[in-house]
Automatic annotation (TrEMBL):
Belongs to the cytochrome P450 family. This is Cytochrome P450. PANTHER family: P450, PUTATIVE (EUROFUNG)-RELATED, P450, PUTATIVE (EUROFUNG)-RELATED-RELATED. It comes from Mycena chlorophos (Agaric fungus). Pathway: Secondary metabolite biosynthesis. One of its GO terms (molecular function) is oxidoreductase activity, acting on paired donors, with incorporation or reduction of molecular oxygen. Its cofactor is heme. Heme binds at C186. Signal peptide: none annotated. Keywords: Heme, Iron, Metal-binding, Monooxygenase, Oxidoreductase.
Length: 266
């Protein structure tokens, strides 16, 4: 890319710099420190650039062990007859439940809940409302992701099954509302979705994620409550869950061995 850039004019280079800085800002605002730590330590093959959605993923897994175990069972069954220890993109179509989790993470806690304002380019009438040319339009992505006629009942609960029918994804070409709309929809969505998928599949193959434990008055270790608040997600803001504790432990001796091997390659 650098070699190609050397052939560009100064004007083109300025434009490339602007594109790179906008993409960096759009992507880095969503980086989650805890996820980065796990990725840096254990998953050197995943790009160290990921999204705040991955923090929500860790939270959802800690809160929903049944979902987590179902995803791990799908991965284990697949890897049983493969000569690779971790899922790869080649396995994507064979692991629909991971896709369903990724879709549900983006729906349950959309990263930009009030989207990015657009403007009407012509006068329009929508459901009896006159929308004058040039008026700002704010897409309420939060409300859209709570539409029971589209996503089924209990939209506030985390349930990847809403994207599945008989074990298969209901819509193979699904595009999450979380990425916005029209010609200015997020250009990083394919990168973000792939990063999320690979990170989720790798993390679930290697780790158990759970609630933190506390010692109760009888001296017994019990799971603590886990209900972190999110930061402000009003207009154009990217909400994150506030820092929360969860346990992230290797799933088996084999997983631990693989992690050590991966770390020594770093
Ligand atoms: C889960 C991850 C992400 C989500 C949910 C997300 C969501 C969004 C949304 C809602 C918009 C506004 C779209 C609209 O105007 O309707 C947007 C714009 C944008 N995103 Fe993302 N994004 C994510 C990750 C990324 C990544 C990883 C990159 C770059 C590598 C990126 C680059 C951009 C850029 C450059 C824009 C501005 C596009 C334009 O105005 O033409 N995004 N994103």
């Amino acid at each position: 890319m650098l070699e190609e850039a050397q052939n560009n004019t100064a004007e083109e280079l300025d434009m490339l710099r602007e594109v790179a800085s906008v993409a960096y800002a759009a992507a880095s605002d969503t980086v989650s420190p805890s996820t980065l730590l796990v990725i840096k330590l254990y998953l050197p093959n995943v790009p160290p650039q990921t999204v705040s959605s991955l923090m929500t993923f860790f939270l959802a897994m800690a809160l929903h062990p049944t979902v987590q175990h179902k995803a791990q069972a799908e991965i284990d069954e697949l890897l049983l007859n493969q000569d690779t220890a971790l899922p790869t993109f080649e396995h994507k179509s064979l692991l629909p439940y991971i896709d369903a989790i990724s879709r549900e993470v983006l729906r349950w806690r959309p990263v930009v809940p009030m989207g990015v304002p657009h403007a009407a380019i012509v006068d329009d009438i929508y459901e009896g409302y006159f929308i004058p040319k040039g008026i700002p339009i704010i897409p309420n992505i939060w409300a859209m992701t709570r539409d029971e006629s589209v996503f089924g009942p209990n939209p506030d609960s985390f349930n990847p099954e809403r994207f599945l029918k008989d074990g298969s994804l209901v819509d193979a070409n699904h595009t999450s509302l979380a990425f916005g709309f029209g010609p200015r929809a997020c250009p990083g969505r394919f990168f973000a979705e792939d990063t999320m998928w690979l990170t989720m599949a790798s993390v679930l193959a290697l780790f158990d994620i759970g609630k933190p434990t506390i010692t109760n008055p009888d001296g017994v270790q019990v799971p603590a409550d886990l209900d972190p608040e999110y930061t402000d997600g009003s207009l154009m803001r990217v909400p994150h869950p506030l820092p929360f504790n969860c346990s992230i432990t290797p799933r088996s001796a084999a997983a631990e061995e693989l992690l050590e091997k991966l770390q020594s390659q770093d």
